[in-house]
Amino acid sequence: MSKLSAARYGKDNVRVYKVHRDEEAGTQDVVEMTVGALLQGDIETSYTQADNSVVVATDTMKNTVYVLAKQHRVSPPELFASIVAAHFVETYRHIHSAQVKIIVHQWTRMTVGGKPHPHSFLRDGADTRNVEAVATEGKGIDIRSAIAGLLVLKSTGSAFHGFIRDEYTTLPEVSDRILSTEVDCGWAWNTFTTLKDVETAVPNFDDAWNSARKITLETFAKDESASVQNTMYKMCEQILTAVPMVKAVDYSLPNKHYFEIDLSWHKGLKNTGKDAEVYAPQSDPNGLIQCTVSR
């Protein structure tokens, strides 16, 4: 006998752009984001009995995102994600949980003639500000904020030695190496009981994101890294200290390798060890190091 053990559905990749015009100052601010939403609740019959009477159409969900973006502020993304998630749970009695994910794409104001331009922007990086908010009936709203796609590299100040060596090991121990990774860093907030509690916490969201980004970059640059594991743990500890409302911090860091190229075959040209200057960037395979540090 089979049964439906889990089910959810929704709308993904809803692209939203919103502009705020300050007529008095003569400036405009823009936000571009990609929104996804998944609903859970009493929807079993739509799967097992072809009963669409319990289905909030995904096109309706898309339209809802647009309407709420018009009616409410979309920054910080933690607030807007919570607004959308809470709307679905509060509007449809048979929906008991809504997960909303937002990716905020960078648009940085241009400087023209030494002054901030009132309405022109550039995308000066591939990293994004990400948020996931889950509104659950009878529980509240859980939020995870994140930095994703932040590509960093340092050409020295990293080592890796003292690891297990056995008959499968070929990796040499090094006291100095290139360290590069694409940062995915997230922090989980204490559960918010109501949407009003999220609204009260609004000033903390931007501050936390700025602190996490600064800590990540400064620790990466300054730490004489014995391993990616140890460096990421230091980052987690500092974010927990800087943001008291956060209960856990997680990192996922792929180790992007740069290998020395032995050029001795060409007239004895030295390009290894202390003479290494030309390297071959590697796309794969790569190390992947992850951790979560909690209070």
Structural features, described:
There is one protein chain. With 295 residues, this protein is α+β, with helices and mostly antiparallel strands. The chain contains 6 helices and 12 strands. The chain has an 8-stranded antiparallel beta sheet. The chain has a two-stranded antiparallel ribbon with strand order 4-5. Strands 10-11 form a two-stranded antiparallel sheet. Helix 5 (202-222) runs antiparallel to helix 6 (228-242). The longest helix has 21 residues, at 202-222. The radius of gyration is 24 Å and the shape is globular.
Key terms for this structure?
single chain, 295 residues, alpha+beta, 8-stranded antiparallel sheet, two-stranded antiparallel sheet, 6 helices, 12 strands, 26% helix, globular
- Beta-strand level of the residues, as a percent range? 35-45%
Can you count the beta strands? 12
Rg (CA only): 24 Å
Name the helix and strand elements from N-terminus to C-terminus, one letter apiece.
EEHHHEEEEEEHHHEEEE
Quaternary structure type: single chain
Strand order of the largest sheet: 1-2-3-6-7-8-9-12
Q: Helical segment tally?
A: 6
Approximate helicity band: 25-40%
Straight-line N-to-C gap: 44 Å
Class based on secondary structure composition and strand pairing: alpha+beta
Q: Give the uncertain stretches in residue-range form.
A: none
Shape: globular
Summarize model confidence as the mean pLDDT. Answer: 97
Main pleated-sheet profile:
8 strands, antiparallel
